[in-house]
Amino acid sequence: MHDRLAAHELLHRWWFVYDEGEFDAWEDLLTEDVRFTSRTDTGNHPHEEFIASDNRGREAVLAWQRAHRLASPYPLRHNGTNIHVIGETEDELSLSSYIHVTSVDDRVPSNIASGIVRAVARREEGVYRLAQVHVVLDTMKAVAFSER
Residue 99 and residue 107: Cα distance in Å, rounded? Predict the structure, then answer.
């Protein structure tokens, strides 16, 4: 049986330690073969080059994450919401969630981004670690759902 709360907590913890730049905590949250991708839904955002990544392996993911975090604002707050399990195998739980990102502008929290996160939490030696994280940020103009 899976511990769904532990998997949810893992994703929440990832965003918290990322925002706070707790670099020493990151390695323990990722599998050795982790894959991390990020992009926008349109692929043509003015900061697409900064946002876009496709890294495989803990070392590569950690290197990209560290450089990305050091170049990002502080405070930065990634809020994972509506996290839910969409699939499971013997050792893995697949998760989906929304993400809402804020920073501070003129001493007031301001929206930076929103999007969808799909992740895989793998149980290794009784502990869940992120094996995949795929982030797609919302940038397209909203239209009626029927026009999508």
Answer: 22
Collect all residues with Cβ–Cβ distance below 8 Å to 57 and sequence separation of at least 6. 32, 33, 34
pLDDT at 38: 98
Number of residues assigned to the chain = 148
Give residue-wise pLDDT tens across range 3-52.
999 999 999 999 999 999 999 999 999 999 999 999 999 999 999 999 99
Amino acid residing at 76: L
Report how far residue 140's alpha carbon sits from residue 42's, in angstroms, rounded to the nearest whole number. 6
Cα separation of 60 and 78, whole Å? 21
Burial 109-130 (b: 16+ CB within 10 A, else e): eeebbebebebbbbbeeeebbb
The rounded distance, in Å, linking the Cα atoms of 29 and 40 is 24
Q: 30 - beta bridge partners?
A: 130
Tell how strand 77-88 and strand 92-105 pair up.
Answer: antiparallel
Other Cβ atoms closer than 10 A to 36: 22
Please give the Cα distance from 137 to 91 (Å, whole number): 28
